[in-house]
Amino acid sequence: xxxxxxxxxxxxxxxxxxxxxxxxxxxxxxxxxxxxxxxxxxxxxxxxxxxxxxxxxxxxxxxxxxxxxxxxxxxxxxxxxxxxxxxxxxxxxxxxxxxxxxxxxxxxxxxxxxxxxxxxxxxxxxxx
Length: 128
Fold this sequence. Notes:
By secondary structure, the protein is mainly α. Helix content is 84%, strand content 0%.
């Protein structure tokens, strides 16, 4: 397999792992000194639910790139809408700041989905 094909194959997987770690970092706000140990652990595990969903999607995409590509693209679009609306309506951020947060947090998942679809297409083209 060519080096460019290897890059196309591994880029979405590596980017997705880094994005899952980035999203998981937000679960650390569950730790607060006024809570008991078990309340903190419970809150931490609940805050990791998006990470669990993304790990499951990555497991699917790892073996079935086409399906995983569509899963990540749709998740990225839904996540983009949610991040924008939460920042704009609930947190009363400006539209520009809400868009910036959306690009930082959610758009990379659309990129992961598109990279998985591209990887699938390259693999399919090479096998023909």
